[in-house]
Amino acid sequence: MLLQDIQEKVNDFVLTNPKNIVENPEMISTPPTSSDRMQIWELPLIGVASATDALWETFKQPDIIGLHHMNPTEWLSGAKSVIVYFLPYTQRIREANRIQGVTATEWLYGRWEGEMFNMALRQFIVELVEKAGHHALAPLLDERFAIVNLRSNWSERHAAFVAGLGTFSLSRSLITKLGSAGRCGSVIVDFHLEPTQRAYTEVDEYCSHCGACIKRCPPQAIDKAGKDNQICMAYIGREKEIYVPRYGCAKCQTRVPCENKIPVRRG
């Protein structure tokens, strides 16, 4: 099974699956652009990490994720590769959330309904691989997936880093060549795919440290040292009470230099 075949089928899924469309225009805060339907995701970036890459073991360090983080081979016996993708939000959703303070309605739908699509895409890739006679597992669909002290036992952003898709920002978002405004997904498989070469060596190599995300953060959870997850999650909790069942914020991913590209680093 070739990565090109997987990419083509994933692209078709993104373009044709109805879960990638919001069908309730009366719920959207800005006037429709070209129709009364809102697309959530653009075509994704896809990368591959080796299941035995040395970086996986480093994630068990307490100052990175912790001992509870499971390596690919702990999730799936015989794991050989990890397919990782980054779904970028459409321009309409990104632009809507450039407003200050409150979360745009478009972003709320993009985050909630968008993750429903993301779950469906993970399952689609698992089924695609299994139909080809291999084994596959998406950790976020597995009953063993858990979050301990705000840190999960499988980080898709860290998997994306291993797979060459991007590096981290001050806000702990993943910065890819399509920016940081998006979501990751991953599937572990038991056959070999050529790993994507990483074009970086540092964990924050694509971050310009401009501080724009610091100014954008409503609860002031970000400073020059990074993001305080507890402050961030407390704010998200208040959002859930207001917008139930949706929530979003992610102001740190919009109206910033890394919104839809790798920013230019200053001198």
TrEMBL record:
Keyword Heme: no
E.C. number: 1.17.99.6
Organism per entry: Sporomusa silvacetica DSM 10669
Keyword presence, Protease: no
Keywords attached to this entry: Iron, Iron-sulfur, Metal-binding, Oxidoreductase
Domain (4Fe-4S ferredoxin-type) ranges: 197-227
The protein's enzyme class: oxidoreductase
MF term (GO), any: epoxyqueuosine reductase activity
Entries under SUPFAM superfamilies matching the protein: 4Fe-4S ferredoxins (SSF54862)
Name listed for the protein in its UniProt record: Epoxyqueuosine reductase
